[in-house]
Each structure stands twice: as structure tokens, then as C-alpha cells.
Design a protein that fits this description.
This protein has 19 helices and no strands. By secondary structure, it is an all-alpha fold. Belongs to the anion channel-forming bestrophin (TC 1.A.46) family. Calcium-sensitive chloride channel subfamily.
Length: about 600
């Protein structure tokens, strides 16, 4: 299990809290490096004794040349860069593997909250779902951790442990025979999803949203198990690990010769013990050993994860949530601060009060102590604020009328070189005002007043020619004025009056052809015999007169009378009820409409109306 020392470094006092950690042995650097260091020192002293007692003068001279050569060129190995980057990659991978380990606690809470039923079948469903989830993660651990594999080497051991039933084991064995290449850790998740679907059909899960939540959690759990398998099969590239290992060991092979004491050495301290060479070996090799122990945290090292503890913990916590604590909670009572709404401060013990006496202020933000002088607190406009040209334009409108000017070529060429100017006051006379040429309103007006005859098309062309002539004339007049006027824009002004509609663009005197103009009015008809009774009757209709409101057909059997009209609404009298008066008004309105339609139509204008 990972060696924890968090409690010992919670408070830093005196010379620091890390110095007291140097005396630990379990999980320490001494435990990792001591054997390599002994071998290094043994080889170092062997070479040193050979130089001092076994070699002659010629041999010593050759030995000294080799020492100088290794010392000069040994520093060319980029050990710090290669080893530091490798350890950084391994540390990141080590933490990512821990965060990828799935825990069934969230899923157990969802199962307990959504799978209802206090009977035996509901209890079996909840426990079985969580047993399948724990079986999935345990099978994953057996494929990536030697410690769990030694605990559950076969499916029979999972059956004996209670994570798997005999019938379920037979299904897995048959699948392994048919598909031996792939792992079956995902199979319990499929079984759990089937149980959730069955619980929904039986009404033990109340809504589909709860089903979706459970299925999503199952897929998330299965994805994390798959991620652990991916970490196991896809490791740090082998070539990088080989480069780092060769760099470290080749560097210290050259150090064995390059840091040897010889007769012409400047310092005699290395004659007895290579102090800094030993420290260098201790740090670099210790760095490499850290990477070796963390590259697979599911092994038997001191800092590896305690996966066997996780297996026991997962099953116990899952059963506790979905069975023992299912739909159970303490009694609902008022809390201690019910009348106060919230406490001003929670009490302290004597030991905690002594430590908190030094902290008599609450945490403050970083700008809490920044004060602004009163004379500098007045709000003011920024110095870089620009004057709004439209506001200046509105202010200057009071001095005179506004005239829009346009450039003849601006409507047909690029507006890249166009400039905006404003004619304000009396700098431009009223005669120079220009109508809105080529605007959206004029286009819509010409479109709806277009006629199919040639005369109308010619009139339209003449209107466009007159507008262009007016545009050119106004442009020539503006050129004569020179710089005395400011243009509002060099382009033709395009704008639409929002308060006008399409139909209002047509002149009141314009005539449009219609159906009455093409086919003419219908021939006059005979006068209609008005009934004398109080109610309108169609018993003697005039077949020569067009009736736009024919009587309704009576689909019900009977004598054809309208029984619905005889129903009384409200208070009735013997002579006449309210319904009869309403019916008279309706008949009068109908007759007025008929007379209006049959009245002579006035002669239309030659071009329509």
C-alpha cells in the first residue's frame, strides 16, 4: 500500500517537517538504492586498488589517460534532461491510473434511491446489480494486478468468494471457449443493465430518467475498467525506457573511471571515499528507481496501490448502501439552531482554541487593504472618449434644414474611397435637396406599380431616367459649392421608413386592374320578395336571384324545420322570446349584405382602381 506521511507534515515547525522523514525505511530511497550503491562502491574501490597496488608505471600512465578521457567526455551524456522528463511522464501516468480506478459508491446510491421495493425480489435485484459491478472491477484487477491474480487465480475462486454463481461461471466458460481472445470483464455490466431494464418493466423503477441515469453510471464504470486495461497494455514506449536506462548506467560506468583518484589529482579527499560521486549516484539512480516503482502501481512495491483492500471495501460498502441502508434515515428532528436560523460560530475545544487564538481575523481578499483617496473617488469621463458625430449632427439640426447629397459614381463603383460628410444649416440651399434615389422604398414602389403594358414600362423607364438626371444635376450643383458644404455620405442613401407599409407606397390616384374591370359587373336581378313574417323564411325563394347565403341543409330526418331555432334561451314569453329577437337581427344583417352585393357597381376608372 502507498506509504502515507501526511499526518507528520501537517504542521511545519522549526527546521522543517521533511527532515524527520529521512529516518524511514519502508518506501524510502535507501531501500531502493542500497544494493546498487554497494555494487558501485565495490567496483570503484576495486579499480582504485588495482591502480594503486597492482599496476606498474606504464599501466598507471595508461590508467591516468583513461581517467582523463572519461572525465572530459562523460559530461556529454544529457542525463538530467532525459531522466527528469521521463520521471515527470511516469508520475503523471501514476496519478492518472489512480483516478481511473472505479468505485461503486455513486452507482450504489442511485440503485438504492431508484430501485424500489422492500420485498425479497426488490432486495435481490439491488444486491445482484451491485454484486455484478464489484465482480467487474475484481475481474479487471485480476488482469492487471499480480496481487489480486494470486488471490483469485481462476473463476472457481470467484465462486468460492461469493462474487460469482455456478450458473454464471458456466456462461463465462462457454463464452471463453467460443471467443477466447477477448476478456469478459464487461459481461457482469451487461447482466446488471438487463436487471435494470426488468425492474423498469415491473414498475420498481418509476421513470425512464432513472433508468437512463443507472445505465449511464454502468457505462461510466465499465469505461473506467477499460481504461485500466488500456494503461496495462499500453505503457510508456519501450524505446524511451531503454534510452533512460542506458543513459543512467552508461553515465556511471564512465564515472567509475572518470572520478578515480590518481597521482596528479588536485584533491586528495577521493583517495579515501568518493563523496560527491556517491551523492551523484544516489540522486540519479534513486530518480531512476522511483520511475521503475511507479510505472506500474498495481504490483508489490511499497508505494503500489492496495487493490486487495479495494476489492473487500467495494463489496462491503455496496451491500451496506443498497440493503442495510435502503430507504432508511434517522428521525427528522429540529436542529440545535432552529430558533437562531444559523449559528454565529461553532464551539471549540480547549486544544483547538489555543491554536485558533492566533487567527482572530477571517480570510480577506487580496484587495481588501487597498484604499482610494476621497478626492480620487469621483467618476469622470475617460480622456480618450470620442465625440459622437450623430449627437453633433442632432445638435446642429436646430440651425437649419438637412440636405442629403450623393455622388454619381458612388452607386456604381467601390465605396473604398468614399467619404462621409454632413450638410448642416444654410450652407446648401433647399433647392439642392435630392430625393431618395435607388432606395428600397423606391424599388418596392416601382415593383408594385408595374404594369404589363409597354406604356407603363416606358413610364417606369422615364421615371428612372428622371431620377438619374436629378442625381447628376444635384451632383453638378454640389461640385460648384466646393467645400462650403459637408456631405453626409458619398453613396446613395438607402433607407426604409419603418412606419410605412408596402400598400402605402402606391399612390391614391394609381389604378390597378381587378376582376370587376376584366369581366364587368353582373347583370341586375329582379327585386327580392321580402317576407312579412317575424322570421326570415326561404319557403318561396326567387330562383332568378343569386343568394350568397343559401339555407343550411337538414341532414336529420323530419319535415325540414329548424328545430334548433325553436329552442328558447333565457327567460321566454308567450309572444316572443330572446332567441327570436336575435334571429331577426341576424336575418336583417343577412338581407343588408345581399342588397349590398346586388346594388349597381360604379363604373371603374380606365386603368383600374
Amino acid at each position: 500500500m502507498t506509504v502515507t506521511y501526511t499526518a507528520e507534515v501537517a504542521t511545519c515547525r522549526g527546521l522543517g517537517c521533511f527532515l524527520k522523514l529521512l529516518g524511514r525505511w519502508k518506501g524510502s530511497i535507501y531501500k531502493l538504492v542500497w544494493l546498487d550503491l554497494l555494487m558501485f562502491l565495490f567496483v570503484y574501490y576495486s579499480l582504485n586498488m588495482t591502480y594503486r597496488y597492482l599496476l606498474d608505471e606504464a599501466g598507471k600512465a595508461l590508467f591516468e589517460m583513461i581517467v582523463k578521457y572519461c572525465y572530459d567526455y562523460g559530461s556529454l551524456i544529457p542525463l538530467s534532461f532525459v531522466l527528469g522528463f521521463y520521471v515527470s511522464v511516469v508520475m503523471t501516468r501514476w496519478w492518472n491510473q489512480y483516478t481511473a480506478i472505479p468505485f461503486p459508491d455513486p452507482l450504489a446510491v442511485f440503485v438504492s434511491a431508484t430501485v424500489h421495493g422492500q420485498d425479497e425480489r426488490g432486495r435481490v435485484m439491488r444486491r445482484t446489480i451491485m454484486r455484478y459491478v464489484c465482480l467487474c472491477v475484481t475481474m479487471t484487477f485480476t488482469m492487471i494486478s499480480p496481487r489480486v491474480k494470486k488471490r483469485f487465480p481462476t473463476l472457481e475462486h470467484l465462486v468460492e468468494a461469493g462474487l460469482l454463481h455456478e450458473s454464471e461461471k458456466e456462461i463465462m466458460v462457454n463464452l471463453n471457449k467460443k471467443f477466447p481472445k477477448y476478456s469478459k470483464h464487461w459481461l457482469p455490466i451487461v447482466w446488471a443493465s438487463s436487471i435494470i431494464t426488468r425492474a423498469r418493466k415491473e414498475g420498481r423503477i418509476r421513470d425512464d430518467f432513472a433508468v437512463k441515469t443507472l445505465i449511464d453510471e454502468l457505462n461510466k464504470f465499465r469505461g473506467q475498467c477499460g481504461l485500466l486495461l488500456s494503461f496495462d497494455t499500453i505503457s510508456v514506449p519501450l524505446v524511451y525506457t531503454q534510452v533512460v536506462t542506458l543513459a543512467v548506467y552508461s553515465y556511471f560506468l564512465t564515472t567509475l573511471m572518470g572520478h578515480q583518484w590518481v597521482d596528479n589529482s588536485t584533491y586528495r579527499f577521493d583517495l579515501y571515499f568518493p563523496v560527491f560521486t556517491t551523492l551523484q549516484f544516489f540522486f540519479y539512480v534513486g530518480w531512476l528507481k522511483v520511475a521503475e516503482s511507479l510505472i506500474n502501481p498495481f504490483g508489490d512495491d511499497d508505494d503500489d496501490f492496495e487493490v486487495n483492500w479495494m476489492v473487500d471495501r467495494n463489496l462491503q460498502i455496496s451491500y451496506l448502501i443498497v440493503d442495510e441502508m435502503h430507504h432508511d434515515h434517522p428521525e427528522l428532528v429540529r436542529d440545535q439552531y432552529w430558533d437562531e436560523v444559523f449559528p454565529p460560530e461553532l464551539p471549540y475545544t480547549a486544544a483547538a482554541a489555543a491554536a485558533e487564538s492566533m487567527r482572530n481575523t477571517h480570510p480577506l481578499p487580496s484587495t481588501a487593504n487597498i484604499a482610494v483617496k476621497p478626492e480620487e473617488q469621483e467618476l469622470m469621463n475617460p480622456l480618450s472618449a470620442k465625440v459622437d458625430p450623430m449627437q453633433t449632427y442632432i445638435d446642429n439640426m436646430q440651425t437649419g434644414p438637412i440636405t442629403f447629397s450623393a455622388n454619381k459614381a458612388a452607386g456604381f463603383k467601390s465605396r473604398k474611397n468614399s467619404s462621409n460628410s454632413l450638410a448642416i444649416g444654410s450652407s446648401v440651399p433647399d433647392a439642392m435637396s435630392m430625393p431618395r434615389v435607388a432606395s428600397v422604398t423606391s424599388l418596392l414602389k416601382r415593383f408594385f406599380s408595374r404594369d404589363d403594358t409597354r406604356n407603363d414600362s416606358r413610364n417606369e423607364n422615364n421615371v428612372e431616367a428622371n431620377e438619374m438626371n436629378a442625381l447628376i444635376t444635384n451632383e453638378e450643383k454640389l461640385k460648384k459649392l466646393g467645400n462650403s458644404s459637408k456631405r453626409i455620405t458619398a453613396d446613395v442613401i438607402e433607407e426604409v421608413d419603418e412606419q410605412t407599409t408596402i400598400t402605402s407606397q402606391r399612390s391614391q390616384h394609381d389604378c390597378r386592374p381587378n376582376v370587376m374591370h376584366v369581366f364587368g359587373p353582373p347583370p341586375p336581378s329582379r327585386p327580392i320578395d321580402m317576407p312579412q313574417s317575424s322570421s326570415f323564411s326561404n319557403n318561396h325563394p326567387n330562383h332568378h336571384v343569386y343568394d350568397p347565403f343559401p339555407p343550411l341543409a337538414n341532414s336529420a330526418p323530419g319535415d325540414g324545420a329548424d328545430f334548433t331555432d325553436r329552442v328558447s334561451i333565457g327567460s321566454a314569453t308567450d309572444d316572443e322570446d330572446d332567441f327570436d329577437s336575435l334571429k331577426k337581427k341576424r336575418d336583417e344583417e343577412r338581407l343588408s349584405r345581399v342588397n349590398l352585393l346586388l346594388s349597381p357597381i360604379p363604373k371603374a376608372c380606365p386603368d383600374g382602381y
